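Form P-L/3: holo structure prediction, ligand nickel (II) ion.
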Amino acid sequence: MITMKDIIREGHPILRETAQPVAFPLSEEDITLGQKMLEFLENSQDPVKAEELALRGGVGLAAPQLAIPKRIIAVLIPSNDPEKPEPVVREVLYNPKIVSHSVQEACLGDGEGCLSVDRDVPGYVIRPARITVAYTNAAGESKKMRFKNYSAIVLQHEVDHLNGIMFYDHINTDNPFALRPDVLVIE
Ligand SMILES: Cc1nc(NNC(=O)[C@H](CC2CCCC2)CN(O)CO)c(F)c(N2CCN3CCOC[C@@H]3C2)n1
Ligand code: NI
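OUTPUT (holo model):
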């Protein structure tokens, strides 16, 4: 299974590469990889397993973070409604592409972090608040899914990894917490 030792850290060249699209039909290898990426996220969100395996919590993971320059991401966004325990998003996306986005922007109030970055980089990472992503799922079906707010931020962080972009590339170096009035701050 995937653990922190499999995740490359900033400075590794693959994190700055553009990842390659995967071919269809998906190979067993690419299907298995997607499943293992989701399993990592599930383990990382399980307090007992995360402790046992010394995993940092994660809601998303991109194949380049495993030194695999392929356009594959996994996202596991837990529900925050105890009435509905089902995850908001639990998906492996092959060749994801942001096909449209809102003018309105948003950012996480706590800023962003990254499993490939072993340091805090303070500042707002301002991104479109709503996006539409076209992708292929593990069954080989073409999908189009809309994301907003927290989920949209997570998806964009992961798609950035496929294009060699790190979250801190977006932070305003002059004033990391500069905010235009219409930017939605997500707590
Ligand atoms: C926001 C958050 N980021 C966590 N980590 N960073 C990541 O996921 C990186 C990707 C995220 C960083 C900002 C946007 C995308 C990984 N990245 O580098 C992949 O490219 C968390 F772990 C986390 N949560 C909230 C939900 N909680 C449920 C219970 O388990 C703990 C978990 C903690 N929220
Ligand atoms: Ni990351």
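COMMENT: Residues 13-185 form a domain with the Peptide Deformylase fold (CATH 3.90.45.10).
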